[in-house]
Amino acid sequence: MGRLPWLAFFFERILRFTVRFDMRSHASWSDTAGAKSSVELVERIGLVGLPNAGKTSLFNALTGAEAAVAPHPFTTTESSVAVAPVPDVRLDALATMSSSKKVVRAGVEVVDIAGLVAGASSGEGLGNRFLAGIREVDALCLVLRSFDDPEVPGVTDALDALGTLEIELVLADLATLESQIDKRRKASRADKSLAAEVAALERAHEALQTGTPLYRSVLDAEDRELRRGMFLLTDKPVLVVVNLGEDQLEKADAVVAPLVDALTGHGEVLGACVQLEAEAARLDPAERAEMFEGFGLGEGALARVAAASYQLLGRRIFFTTGDKESRAWSFRHGASAPECAGVIHSDLQRGFIRAEVIHWDELLDAGSWAVAKSGGHIRLEGKDYHVLDGDVLEIRFNV
Ligand SMILES: Nc1nc2c(ncn2[C@@H]2O[C@H](COP(=O)(O)OP(=O)(O)OP(=O)(O)O)[C@@H](O)[C@H]2O)c(=O)[nH]1
Ligand SMILES: [Mg+2]
Question: Please, what are the domains in the chain?
């Protein structure tokens, strides 16, 4: 697409406005079991893709928002932000077991932005200034279109789209680095403690200059930490969603395989028919389950996208459950029992005595906490215990 002067009008709007869809982040709603549900916000992902790749459709499917979707490029001109509650059958089962009045899910904040095109870094399409809207997300989700639809113009070769996006993201990062690196060099002459940071920035600059996104380069975690303040886009972990046509669902593995090859060791890849998922998101839970079953979609893409982004970010879930509420808590992989207690409340970490722990499926087998306890299935764990994904905790503390 050529440079269109009228698009300059949109620049301003993109920079000035961000639409927030708050329906699920603050409000609560009733789920299948009739319990009140709400969501605890934790991680943020930013959707990146070419125009008409299906970014907004995915955003709507994930968050239940109703942002505009249309078969022409650059439908999205303003960034949208909404929270996607992470579906979790383990939490549902615990809430049912405990007859919880309230269910609190883990959440992922999703940011939807305008479509990138080749040459965006030099002003093509809507340019690339809207990328500022995702500088501070924790992970990028690249939406690559594979579905074919004569009504919807645009690139349908997902591998080709990946190449275009990577170049534009690298160019955006180069521009950010180049605008900062001299200032940091000057500062480091006066303050020698900045030398390591400058060296890390120079190594990143070298990698980017060869056209390599930082998530593909072999720079280590320490370097990444030193560059954190630059908010470079390709320094973030990457999840790829290949947007499949309905007719591609049966051969999804084969369609997705070249992307898996291209990203092995550098990012997660999954296939989904975003349009079907977006339609499903508008149904009530029972109808949705029926539709997913009809298409052989299991729990649906939302659960998979959420699980993949948690995996990518090294996040894990533990649960608390009782008649008042059942809740999913997100924690960093490898965290100790007191650190997890601190996720609930700092007092619980400060006054931590011990954790009573049982894995969620063992608790379900027992049928209740009391039965599990009298049967000797609840373990007492101390400060050195590393909490596992799926553990149910009760913290004993004293402050
Ligand atoms: N056939 C088919 N159409 C889809 C699918 N996903 C999205 N679409 C359609 O493709 C068009 C573009 O979808 P959007 O979600 O607006 O795409 P976008 O990436 O947000 O586009 P921009 O905001 O313009 O960059 C819409 O008409 C969608 O209905 C799909 O899986 N199959
Ligand atoms: Mg859009």
Answer: 1-155+231-315 (3.40.50.300), 334-397 (3.10.20.30)
